[in-house]
Specification:
Number of helices: 14
Order of helices and strands: HEEEHHHEHHEHEEHHEHHEEEHHH
Strand order of the largest sheet: 3-2-1-4-7-6-5
Structural class: alpha+beta
Distance between the termini: 29 Å
Largest sheet: 7 strands, mixed
Number of strands: 11
Strand content: 5-15%
Length: about 350
Amino acid sequence: MDLTGIIRLSNTYGSDPELVLAGGGNTSVKDAETLYIKCSGTSLKTIGEDGFVPLDRALLEQTLTKDYPADDAGREAAFLTDVMAARTVPGETRRPSVEALLHHLFPQRYVVHLHPALMNGLTCGREGRRHTKELFGEKAVWIPVIRPGFVLGKRCHSVMEAHGVQMGEPVSLAILENHGIFIAADTEEEIGAILEEAIAALKKAVSCFPEQMDAEPVDGAAIAEIRRKTGAAHIQFRTSPQILAFLQSRETAQDLLVPFTPDQIVYCGAEPVYVTDISQIEPDSIGGKILLVENRGIFALGQSEKETELAMLVFLDAVKIAIYAKSFGGPQPLPEELIQFIVSWEAESYRQKEAKK
């Protein structure tokens, strides 16, 4: 199969930090028999032919009717085994994206899954579903927040099938609560047009936009104290008037203390730590990668420069989501039970390992 088009789409959107950060997002191209999907943990910005793994669509389709174990761990392990078995190349070691089944569900040739902060202001807004209906009408389907993996695939299958029956055409824009968007079309041009229209509609609906969040100088003594107390080898710092508006108190910081999306958990950890002063940090008390200091700013912590940089980029994206979400009923984070599922989910643990490479 010719992968030129999907590589071009992937590199184009993967190079835009307003659409994709770190190893987030995924893409695919298909014919009637085979789905070529991005390997888990691969960067869209630099992906080439070796970043896509071919899957047998007939075997993916069979997973929709299989009777998997009821418990989370058993179900997802069995589902993963079946997805890995759908790889068409003997001896294949590359791992397909965890959302391979969703890509298969779209009949269109190309599928692009992105996590734009602007769009996630909508998906992470308390009134996101209502605004989706107002902005896109029947052009889009809304997928309520749900466990990723097989359960998400089954829910999308049900919603997309019902939409097809009602509208007489397949879904081309799926909006997933606390997650992102899926765009499907038969040509590269159609993918671009759908995305451009969606972004334009959202920009008109938003009343407050994020400002620039550049690096700021911070005194060496503060960095040294944080490093001594946390053991972090690398530390980055950011602040801005909008960031400081969140960090006036623990109460005003609430919208930043719980993750909005799975990617935030992968790259930043599940629980940012909030302190009123650096002196309050207890030795070895910070298990995550983000430290919020009242009236000061955001510190990203890591054992490598890459880990630290990605944590900061993704957390600043969460700040943008919180700002955008004010236009859609106010910020709504992931439910606690879903956070715990993602923290212990093997697929996300795999992504975390890949992110550190």
